[in-house]
Design brief:
The chain has 220 residues and is α/β, with parallel strands linked by helices. The chain is built from nine helices and eight strands. The protein has helices at residues 16-21, 63-68, 75-89, 116-119, 127-130, 133-143, 154-167, 181-184, 200-218; strands at residues 4-5, 12-13, 40-41, 44-45, 54-58, 105-108, 148-152, 172-176. The structure holds zinc ion.
Length: 220
């Protein structure tokens, strides 16, 4: 399975860095007057904001991501949109206006698709693969040049920490829980600020946003 596809000429490659380093015969500026541009795949979204300083890392793509051919496509994605809006409203980390999560760089700890019906699990638990040089290098390429990496869930946190140590990258890590309902429903409702204009879910997500803001001030 090729992971990345150029939006102009449909050239495919397993390596993101290799693909975007090569000239594109159908580049909008003219033949070979620019490189391939790989915007989205089930596990990866390049983002559209030029000055974006954050990369969002989840665990692995599932059924919805496979169908939609972009990451965090289901309810987790809707929850992510709400968290990003909270950060923007507070003018913390996010100061530019944006339309949706796809304005931001998003990737996953694993690029392999996992879901109950097909793989009988929802997470990539293959430690040998997750910790492989190949996978850590992929993650390094995809998160390059970012100031903050926000890791959602334990799998993402673990892999990103390894990647940062291995390549000695100066990036600030922020670790929060995964945004699936299974995860956020563990946030005790009484622990939230309980804004009555927000739903239970939104109050819980607001708490996650607060956690991100708190860590952004102290993370190194
Ligand atoms: Zn191309």
């Amino acid at each position: 399975m090729e992971d990345y596809c150029c939006v102009y000429c449909q050239e495919k490659d397993k390596s993101f860095s290799k693909l975007i380093s090569e000239s594109c015969p159908e580049h909008p500026n003219g033949k070979n007057k620019g490189n391939h541009f790989a915007k989205q795949s089930p596990h990866f979204n390049q983002g559209s904001l030029i000055n974006t300083n954050i990369t969002l890392v989840f665990s692995c793509p599932g059924q919805w991501e496979k169908i939609m051919k972009k990451p965090v496509s289901g309810q987790t994605g809707t929850n992510l949109d709400f968290v990003l809006k909270c950060l923007f409203n507070r003018k913390k980390i996010i100061s530019e206006e944006f339309i949706s999560r796809y304005d931001y760089r998003i990737t996953n700890a694993s690029h392999r698709v996992h879901y109950q019906k097909e793989t009988k699990d929802t997470e990539d638990k293959d430690k040998e693969f997750l910790y492989s040089d190949k996978n850590l290098f992929r993650l390094c390429q995809e998160t390059k040049g970012t100031e903050f990496i926000i890791c959602f869930g334990k799998v993402a946190q673990d892999i990103v920490k390894r990647m940062k140590d291995k390549y000695n990258i100066k990036v600030k890590l922020i670790n929060v829980r995964h945004l699936s309902f299974q995860s956020i429903n563990h946030i005790k409702y009484t622990d939230t600020k309980m804004d009555n204009t927000l739903s239970h879910t939104q109050n819980r997500l607001f708490k996650v946003a607060e956690d991100i803001i708190r860590q952004s001030k102290i993370s190194i």
